[in-house]
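Supplementary material to the annual report.
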Amino acid sequence: MRVKSVFARRIGLSLLLSAVLGGGGVAFADDAAQVAVPVVANPELEAEVMELSHKLRCLVCQNQSIAESNAPLAVDLRDQVREQLEAGKSKDDVLEYLVERYGDFVLYEPPFKTTTLLLWGGPAALLVGGAGWLAFRLRRRQAEAAQQARLTDAERDRARALLAGAAPVAADAPSAEEPRS
Amino acid sequence: MKAKFLVPLFLFLVLVGFLAFGLGLNPREVPSPLIDKPAPAFSLARLDQPEQRFSIDEMRGQVWLLNVWASWCVACRQEHPVLVDLARRNLVPIVGLNYKEVRGDGAIDARGMALEVETAQAISRARGWLKAHGDPYQLSVLDIDGRVGIDFGVYGVPETFLIDRDGRIRYKHIGPVTPDNLQKVLLPKIEELKRAG
Amino acid sequence: MIPELGHFALVLAFVLALVQAVVPLVGAARNNQSMMAVARPAAQGQFLFIVFAYGCLTWAFITSDFSVQLAATNSHSETPLMYKITGVWGNHEGSLLLWAMSLSLWTVAVTVFSRNLPDAFMARVIGVLGFVSLGFIAFMLVTSNPFDRLLPGAPQGRDLNPLLQDPGMIIHPPLLYMGYVGFSVAFAFAIAALLTGRFDAAWARWSRPWTTVAWVFLTAGIAVGSGWAYYELGWGGWWFWDPVENASFIPWLVGTALMHSLAVTEKRGAFRSWTVLLAISAFSLSLLGTFLVRSGVITSVHAFATDPARGMFILALLVIVIGVSLLLYAWRAPKLTGGGSFGLVSRDTTLLGNNVLLAVVAASVLLGTLYPLFLDALNLGKISVGPPYFEAVFVPLMTPVVVLMMFGPFLRWKNDEMGAVVRRLAPAAVVSVLTGVGVAFAIGNPTWRTMLGISLAAWVVLTSFQLLAARLKDRHGGTTSSRLSTIPAAWWGMWLAHFGVGIFIIGVTLVGSIESNLDLRMKEGQQADFAGYTVKFRGVVEADGPNYDAMRATIDLSRDGRAIATLQPEKRVYRAMGMPMTEAALDIGVFRDVYVSLGEQLPEGDWIVSLHYKPFISWIWAGCIFMVLGGILAAADRRYRRLAERSAPAGAAAHAA
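Predicted assembly:
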């Protein structure tokens, strides 16, 4: 809409000009009838309703929360959420109410239970695994580098001969093709 | 070939297994958490005698079906002959839950409509539809605002619930019942429940 | 007749793809020059035929030839010309053709811009790309022919999905596909290297610009897509963690890791097996995304109409392309040990650390995206994994990435000293945290999210300028401007892209912290105060478009009596589909957007008007623009051209030896 908005602004300018020339302009609304009313009487409640609605999946939609969808079921469920919050129920009560009827599927934030253990624990496990692997690789590299730095040429030859007998050593020196920048 | 370099291939093949299996699944079909739980209690006006109310306690001791329908629901029309046929065989009583007959119809703007007006319209529409397509129901009840539907976890009409003698939901079918569903799944389950009690 | 010509051209493209896939690879194996020389003309010929086929399909759309099934279901005679043209890719078959065309375009680009590659290497690269192309053209011809006829032809078409009739959707898919498919080049380079066992710095140097350009396209594509969602869906959300968005984001994360890993492999000869794995993964994950969108295994807002037969075909394609690649990897990669050694504190370490983190993030997003499928397949119930999960996982994992990202450039390659760097960056770190906490309290939103976000953004911005200052101080003599001009484009690219991340974080954090919205019932002439602005509703008029009916509201936005903008949100009903659409109107500003959308008309005659105040939201896309510019600068560095030329003879010699 960037394109459109530039366009809109241009229109806006000409409208503004005509408004000024026509003696219009921004009215100072002392008149109560001139003040628009909010759709909801209670904005704090509505904010909570929307916050909760964003966490609930609309079952008939492709993949939308009941806050985003205007499918009839989404509207009904939003009304339910509002009604129950209004009646003083807690957010958890409302979630439980819906889970009892529609199952865990309605929750965009899956509950923590045995079947979701891997889901919730997975990223942490991956992180630990990744960090462990990284630490292992770095230590090995560092040990190799330190060892190379400390040994004299003769010792290095001897070590190389020993190691060659025991196990093949990963070539640590950069190959000839690599730049030494 | 070192084993650790086979790990990516292995993970990929596991993933492919799941994806292949996933092709045969229907991601839209959500199982009901109400299975094997008592059917939610309700008391709603009957379609045939709106001044009378029906509650599920009246069905206690019987194995029965609760079928969610509406005249605006296209898939209901598709399943209807199957239900009419089933009713004719007298195997199991079917109770109809007429779901949001007026306000569920996308063609009608029911906002601001008085409840009495809406109810009257719902009754005439629903009765007209049953007259035109046959009435397989022992009785139908009117869920004007869809609240009972929410209690049953209804998300797509038609849906059919199989309820046992103790009033527990034993099976839920989502979408139109086909002759094949009826023969292979519903009827055997009904038989089993009838024998059990 | 024209659709048949297009179909025939597609068949010819298939034949050429077959030639391109087989002949050069056999030639390379036998060291047969004339067979290798087939690569270029085959690839270029294939491109011409695909473009021709694409043109034929577009022609069917432009001329409203509704005897072509695809045009009948995705176009309408009243659709504006622009959307007739873009409607070609607003569906499964047409978008596949676009996919194949962009693969072919990348291949041709390789034949043109990488003339200096050794013949055998080039032949293998083109051959691998030919195999991928072969698979996709076969997919079209077998299961998804875009030229299928509808007999008898439909009198009128069903029109393109109104959601896609938008300027953002004109450029989003081509950019995204160029990005997805662009990773095929790095992939083909990696496979060619695995085939030859040649993994030197030259390989990494050849791969780098291609990877960066693909990444630029993907970044731009994702950014445009999210911008489209922002204004088109009517309530101002810009990222939903929908499976299809994730399908584009996962390759982006892996591609980002690949770019950085290639840098280390080029400079230091290190991480070689890891780099190859990333190159294979980036493209494989793009393919996986294609599968997810088109197979129906996952529910998404954006999924194409699905069909299990197609799903099976792509899955088979995935198994062949990815399976064979990973098998090749398992066979050859163990030889890729070694590389330059480096200490614990070095630029190498920070790059490797961020690589691992990015891979963990990508794997986590993939896990969340596919987890419902896993559970369902194991019959363990159905669950949904949505934004709350991804946010909970993403933020903690990305935080160290952003911190390390700014550490890296201050460290020397190979080995550096921790103390010196910490002393240098400590002031910036302290100031960042103070800024984060201070800003969070100043804007009245003292949450962890705000503090963390602003601290990270401040960290990136402060250290960016510190880095620039240090870089200028390093060069002695000359004026500041002459010292600036000695900095290579690649360095600017890096600097700008990293800086863009900081800008991006500011946008994301602030819009999440202090956005507000208000839904009003408005009658003509009424006004209301909202977020410091006065909004006046001047009424609604009919404003029908070529293929839709619309009601257009006019709303004046002013502040302290000073007019700022006139906004005209619309409510449209696209006639062919009867589908209602909300066209929001925005007043875009540097520090805030005011976003207005028109809701329903109430029975009493007043309208529901939805107002959104979105502070700093433009910074999200400004950050992406910086990243894109950074990528372009990095890829345009003269070094690549120079080095490619210099290494060419050496490469050829190395191969011959």
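The interface with chain B takes residues 59-60, 72-73, 76-77, 80, 99-105 of chain A (CB under 8 Å).
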